[in-house]
Amino acid sequence: MTQIKRIVILTGAGISAESGIDTFRAAGGLWEQHRVEDVATPEGFARNPDLVLGFYDMRRAALAHVAPNPAHAALARLQGEFAGDVLLVTQNVDDLHERGGSRQVLHMHGELKSALCLACEARSPWHAPMLDRPPCPVCAAPSLRPDVVWFGEMPYEMGRIYQALETCDLFVSIGTSGAVYPAAGFVEEARRAGARTLELNLEPSEGSHRFDESRLGPASVLVPAWVEEVLTTTS
Ligand code: BJW
Hints:
- The protein is an alpha/beta fold and 235 residues long.
- It folds into two domains: 136 residues, 3-Layer(aba) Sandwich (Rossmann fold); 80 residues, SIR2/SIRT2 'Small Domain'.
- Helix content is 34%, strand content 19%.
- The protein has ten helices and nine strands.
- The longest helix has 16 residues.
- The radius of gyration is 18 Å and the shape is globular.
- Bound molecules: ligand BJW.
- The site of ligand BJW has 36 residues, from helix 1.
């Protein structure tokens, strides 16, 4: 633990579950309530934009009723107090890392509070519904879509993420099922770089066997305990 200088952390829906945001693949999760092909692909959006805009409007509005939990706060503490580098990459489109105190977060699957204009390709901060086809703040075209990454689309910030994975000494995956690529492959990239790999998850993920260590339990308990351990053993 004393040799650790560069940490890459990947978070998924599990870190926000205890804040009251549904995960995707659990029983009763988002993909049981909505067909993934309908709401999380460009083809689904082309077929039925109202359905997709309404789905994301509902999830954006729900952010007003949730709050960060101790796992988000612990990662913010780590970013503030760890002497080396911490890159926080999230697959989540919520804003709970930022509201938990994190200042630097890479949202590889985009953000609910951002709009992407299909006419001018501008990405703009966005807080309102999109179902009523509001104008783009940059070009005024009524062509906004949620600025999120659907299946078949390229996630954001991949260059920066792979660069960090190539030089990290510790990779930690928190609350993700390991079912979706490229994020599910990050553990292999980190292993190739010689990093230690740790998974913190409620239950073994699809990729558990790829990690040096798996700790099972709720993120609100595991993450603060792990952060405390890192800060006391590396200071
Ligand atoms: C707790 C907890 C608690 C619960 N405490 N834990 C065949 C093979 C390989 C790849 C492909 C393939 N066919 C197609 C692909 C590519 C495809 C893909 O991966 N498909 C799979 C289905 C196989 N991927 C893509 O298309 C991606 N793009 C791409 O690959 O571009 C090309 C490329 C090439 C080279 C380099 C780079 C790129 C894009 C993927 C986009 C995913 N988008 C979504 C929607 C985003 C917008 C939205 O939110 O609606 O992202 S899908 C959804 O899944 C969302 C999530 O970010 C993502 C991952 O889900 P996550 O976070 O893991 O949630 P869950 O629900 O699955 O798991 C929660 C976990 O938490 C569970 O394990 C619980 O146990 C745990 N948990 N409570 C701790 N309290």
